[in-house]
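Lab channel / #folding
Pinned by the channel admin:
"Please post every new chain as: sequence first, then the structure tokens as a reply. Keep commentary short and put observations after the output so the thread stays searchable."

First post following the new format, from NK:
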Amino acid sequence: MILSLLSLMTPFIIFTCSFLMVPVLMLYVKSSPKRFVISYVISLLVVYVLTQWLGLYLITIALIMLPPVLIMGNLYKRKAAARSVMTAGIVTILAESLLSLLASYAMGFDPVAKFKQFMIDSIATMPAGIQEILPKDQDWYVGFIVQVIPLYLIFVALFLTFVTHGVTRWFLNKTGEGIPGLRPMREWMLQRSLVWIYLVAFVLDLFTKPDSSSLISTLLMNAMPLLMLVFAVQAIGFLFYVAHANKWKPILPIVAIIILVFMPPLFIVYSLLGVFDVAFPIRERFKKNL
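Reply from TO:
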């Protein structure tokens, strides 16, 4: 834990920040509550002594990461399903983000306005070559980035939770804990109600001006990429199912993932395949044809 916090002061921060919750979560699962509190407090004191005033910044980050650790750790101890653990972690991180924004506004600090000004200043200091690549209307571009802040927060919560669960589970299982994992991807299936949400959002998006600053436009800017990602993942799960049903090696879904990484515009195609997989009994018909 001490090393993970101190790593935030090094050039490796981009890499290590993804794993900040891992050592704390492992400590919580493997320790009694009393031992965890003592170890946690001592670790924070050591970090403060070693870094002086920068220690306050590191301690703040550690405390922010504590609630999702406690919630996920309690679920781990109960041997809860991986889906429940990850859902709880994601919701906790998002709730913390929302509470932080509300607290900032209550104290008279506007983080969104500060972020917007930071973006404007950053663009102004960029080399001319990079500025030419960006949209000519910089006010619209900055406004768009600000509008999709909720989407960024959701992606960050998803990423941190997935990484934390994957790495922590691997280490804990090595010590004999037996933490449940996610079901195989070929068995993943979204709720059918999400199909209707996707279709409604898709139709509304067709008739909404992209430069609009209305509430519905902001909601669609955040909802559509998230829904497309979710159904694209569903499509990959379907391809894993096809490969498994035919007793193939998982080359088909792996190639599909590689293609999607290098050709992001195909997200719409993949998401539509995911919609069909959820909305229609494709898998049942596929079974009958085998």
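NK: The mean pLDDT is 86.
TO: also worth noting, The first helix runs from residue 2 to 6.
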